[in-house]
From TrEMBL, chain A:
One of its GO terms (cellular component) is mitochondrial intermembrane space. Residues 203-212 have a biased composition (Basic and acidic residues). Residues 2-171 form the PRELI/MSF1 domain. This is PRELI/MSF1 domain-containing protein. Pfam families: PRELI. PROSITE patterns: PRELI_MSF1. It comes from Botryobasidium botryosum (strain FD-172 SS1). Residues 196-222 are annotated as: Disordered. The lineage of its organism: Eukaryota, Fungi, Dikarya, Basidiomycota, Agaricomycotina.
TrEMBL record, chain B:
Transmembrane segments: none annotated. It comes from Botryobasidium botryosum (strain FD-172 SS1). Keywords: Disulfide bond. This is Mitochondrial distribution and morphology protein 35. It comes from the Eukaryota. GO terms for molecular function: phosphatidic acid transfer activity. It holds the Pfam family UPF0203.
Length: 235, 99
């Protein structure tokens, strides 16, 4: 007996932004159960796609009725494998826990696909498989499924928060992608060049004013600096 | 940016992540559907750019995290998971094995 779950969700942001947010989603306040996240393999392929393997440590919880000692600890190692196809405008991502597999294995599959109207569709599928036995298999699978459903909303809230931060940071006068190659040191001259190229002459003072206002708004400098620090070499 | 599984790797991870995120943002830029030859050229250019910008940072971080994975006794579990369920099936020789 295996339990299934499937759902889709539409983000209003374009695919490139949602994909970026998807990779930046840890840490966020809605994912406090994620203890660590490491890239263990990354390969740009000759076909132009990008393969990534990440190893995550997540804190979990067990149902009250679970027998003592079913797991020696409630943390779990998760392997996340993804392929970003920039030409096809699609991300395919699969995650599974790699320990406690006899008690419970959750296989999650996420697809982020560009929509025709410039939006992004996320499709999530999950399978819950327990081989625990002792008459608990079905109950454990049901428990995992219920937990997953109640957490999926939180996981989207996390991505939406990162999307908002990205949107806000892009309103700043220094774009993240400063000089054609994003990530080189943020060169103010290049930024000005981009600003004048992308903003019509007559609207520029307005947007500068808006940027200044945003910069001085409550919480803005620290949030902006934080997200900017994610895109440049520190030091 | 998230913590590494080993606190000693976190600074190396953050340095690498910052470089990757910047490259990644450019990589994701809208591309017009192009002929296969152009597509391959873009793939090569982006891969070279990634290597040139982030290759050294990646090497440092990867060494650290590989050591930490081994120290935590996760290597065989990870190896098994990759062998059992190649979730993303690479359809090309794994270039990482060469270095």
């Amino acid at each position: 007996m295996v339990k299934f779950f499937a759902q889709s969700h539409v983000y209003d942001d374009p695919w490139a932004t949602v994909t970026l947010a998807f990779f930046l989603r840890y840490p966020n306040p809605y994912a406090s159960h994620v203890v660590s996240c490491d890239v263990i393999s990354r390969t740009p392929t000759p076909y132009g796609t990008l393969l990534t393997q990440r190893l995550l440590l997540k804190r979990g919880s067990l149902p009250k009725w679970a027998p003592q000692g079913i797991m020696t600890r409630t943390e779990s190692w998760i392997l996340e494998e993804s392929e970003v196809d920039v030409e096809g405008r699609i991300v395919r991502c699969k995650t599974s826990n790699i320990d406690h597999v006899k008690v419970m294995q959750v296989h999650e599959s996420t697809v982020l696909k560009e929509d025709q109207n410039g939006k992004t569709v996320q499709t999530t599928e999950a399978r819950f498989v327990s081989n625990f036995g002792w008459g608990l298999t079905k109950r454990l699978e049901k428990f995992a499924q219920t937990k997953f459903v109640s957490n999926i909303e939180k996981s989207r809230e996390g991505i939406s928060l990162i999307l908002r931060l990205l949107r806000e940071s892009r309103l700043q006068p220094l774009p993240i992608a400063a000089d054609g190659y994003p990530g080189a040191t943020l060169n103010p001259n290049a930024a000005i060049h981009i600003a004048s190229a992308s903003t019509p002459e007559n609207t520029r003072p307005d947007s500068e004013e808006k940027n200044a206002r945003l910069r001085s708004g409550p919480g803005m400098p620290s949030r902006w600096q934080q997200i900017r620090s994610w895109f440049t070499r520190p030091g | 940016m998230a913590e590494s599984l080993s606190p000693s790797c976190t600074p190396l991870k953050h340095a690498y992540d910052a470089c990757f995120n910047a490259w990644f943002e450019g990589y994701l830029e809208p591309v017009v559907a192009s002929a296969p030859a152009l597509r391959e050229r873009r793939a090569r250019e982006k891969a070279d750019e990634y290597e040139a910008r982030c290759g050294a940072l990646w090497k440092n971080y990867r060494e650290c995290v590989q050591k930490a994975v081994a120290e935590k006794g996760l290597s065989s579990m990870l190896e098994q998971a990759r062998k059992d369920k190649p979730l993303v099936e690479p359809s090309y020789p794994d270039s990482e094995k060469k270095d």
